[in-house]
Amino acid sequence: MNAGFSAPVNYWGAIDGLTPKSSNDGKTSSVAEAPNEYGDTAAHDVYGEVLAPSTEYAVTGEVDLAGIVLGSIHSYTIGSGASAITKKIMLTTVAITTQANNPPTVTISGVEVESGATAKRTYALTGTLTPRSKAQDVCGAFTASANFTQINTNAAVDPHVQTVGGVPVASDASHGRIEVQATMTDPTGNGAITAASAGGFTVTASPAETDPDANYITRAATATKYLIGTEAA
Fold it and tell me: Is the pTM higher than 0.70?
């Protein structure tokens, strides 16, 4: 295989049912500029290089979402041998895309935190995702009187990263939530989407109706569940 051929990086460790498909290190840095009397840049420094990595996964088996924890801390090593550098990264978002006639995908993303970081507040997910090519309400957010054709589930926390000189020195997480966006086709014209009674979700974007030319009615809604975190022991 050509040495330049892409090999995805699994930043978040082995998760049953997920196979890495693509990745992005999300690396960024900042620039400080010193102007002269004309406003031209007379000196500059690049500083604060940090990662914001993500890995996209193919769903190749049944996935228990309990194995993915928002706010958890992971290690990623760059290089090898004496030059190896280990970074700590916080898992902040999980995006699950499911749709009729298309295989599901999962993208997990996060941010770089301080080198000695440990998890302080985490948020557990529940639900099961399968490798079936269909719309899947993995968290049980909705009930509907017609077939769902697409359901996207997004779970996230807000990372709080303190930096000095652009370098992370402390971190925390809060505001865990799950947002589920669902679309259904309504061939009867009498369909409805409501929040599941036992799922802990609330409809936060009321069901909206679309009436396309020479096609069936579609309805879309968004439901949100706010999570209570767990403090580290």
Answer: yes
